[in-house]
Design a protein that fits this description.
Oligomer: single chain
Helix content: 10-25%
Strand order of the largest sheet: 19-20-21-22-23
Number of helices: 2
Keywords: Signal
Length: about 375
């Protein structure tokens, strides 16, 4: 049996062709048909319906356009879809939606009050949210801190909300669930390469070519590292810096202007001393071992107080004790007066005791000179008697 092609003239209004008619009967047209002109379908289409600029018009209290897949062969898609305009009940919402009829889920929905360019896809596939001229794969435009919210609802894993926001002040990552805490924030005034993560995983702060796991670089003399427990932190002793290695470790101090280098080193080989050395390969300038023994290559200078008087014993106004007074003090205190006690197993102030010993030594020389004068006088007296 041959197929017939039916042709409707322009301006013809067909009521009830695509939507349910008020009449109980339905008309079934077999074969291919074309309508040359515009079409209105729905219970509320009129005989003189204005179809200007409208190729197909659906007019009803509840307008729906359904795509019913009648496939019955196994392996073929069967899901039915529907274009839905507005809720059907009183007080419902104004919207346009694509609905999965089989699951009764709205996959896509546009609210009636949505602003212009709420969603725009250009001919390059770039998506604009709030703009008709997207400049990237996703371009979001807003008048006050446009952002992206990521929200997890899971009864087992828990609920969590993160939000990324960009404003005239900063780019911020906000933990909305944790009372809006902002763990990451980048000021709009931040310079280039403020934070850079290289292909090796090295992190540069001010450096796009980091040479270490953490590389801080500045060109204005402000490169620095500050570890701080601010005011209000609980008091107590804390480990603030820790260097851990499977062997020795060291810190380098490089004065590039002077061309000198110093190293603070935890020695690799036994006895695993602490070393201070310069860049000249002549051995460490100072070492400290686990027993507390200190060894230095050069001389030791101290700037401690010489409260015992030191060289003042030679001044005329210095209250120099007599030999008898000095002896009495030593016997009473069991130590040199200006040296002080020296505990057998306890620490002592090497600077103060060195100054005190110098003072006592100079007093002793004065006493020796005094005794020499006395002895000379006695010898002279004895010589005259002979």
């Amino acid at each position: 049996m041959s197929q017939h092609h039916r042709f409707f003239r322009p301006g013809l209004v067909v009521a009830g062709l695509l939507a349910a008619s008020a009449a109980p009967a339905q008309t079934l047209l077999l074969g291919p048909y074309s309508i040359s002109g515009d079409l209105c379908a729905g219970d509320d289409c009129g005989l003189l319906e204005d179809l200007t600029g409208q190729t197909v018009k659906l007019k009803d209290e509840n307008t729906r356009l359904r795509f019913a897949d009648s496939s019955t062969t196994a392996g073929f898609a069967t899901t039915d879809w529907e274009l839905t305009a507005n809720d059907s009940g009183s007080g419902g919402f104004d919207y346009f939606a694509i609905r999965n009829v089989d699951s009764n889920r709205q996959i896509f929905r546009l609210e009636g009050g949505a602003p212009a360019n709420a969603l725009y896809v250009d001919d390059l596939g770039q998506i604009g949210l709030g703009t008709a001229i997207p400049q990237e794969r996703l371009h979001i435009v807003g008048d006050s801190g446009p952002g992206i919210r990521m929200e997890q609802f899971n009864a087992t894993l828990g609920n969590q909300i993160w939000q990324i926001t960009g404003s005239e002040q900063s780019f911020a990552l906000q933990n909305v669930t944790a009372s809006g805490a902002v763990p990451l924030q980048v000021s709009t005034s931040a310079p280039g390469d403020s934070l850079f993560v290289g292909a090796s995983g090295n992190v540069g702060l001010g450096d796009a070519t980091p040479d270490a796991a953490l590389h801080i670089s500045r060109g204005d003399g402000t490169a620095a590292l500050l570890v701080e427990n601010v005011a209000g932190s609980p008091g107590g002793t804390r480990e603030m810096v820790k260097l851990t290695n499977t062997g020795g470790s060291y810190i380098t101090f490089d004065n590039q202007q002077a061309g000198t280098i110093w190293y603070f080193t935890h020695e690799q080989a036994a006895p695993n001393r602490f070393l201070i050395a310069d860049g000249v390969a002549d051995g460490p300038e100072m070492t400290v071992n686990a027993a507390g023994d200190l060894t230095i290559q050069g001389r030791l200078f101290t700037a401690g107080s010489c409260s015992a008087g030191c060289d003042r014993v030679f001044d005329a106004d210095y209250p120099l004790p007599t030999i008898a007074e000095q002896a009495a003090l030593m016997k009473a205190n069991k130590h040199l007066p200006n040296v002080g006690p020296t505990p057998e197993d306890g620490p002592f102030n090497i600077t103060a005791m060195t100054g005190g010993m110098l003072n006592e030594l100079e007093k002793a020389h004065l006493y020796i000179a005094e005794l020499e004068e006395r002895l000379a006088a006695v010898e002279a007296h004895l010589a005259r008697r002979d």
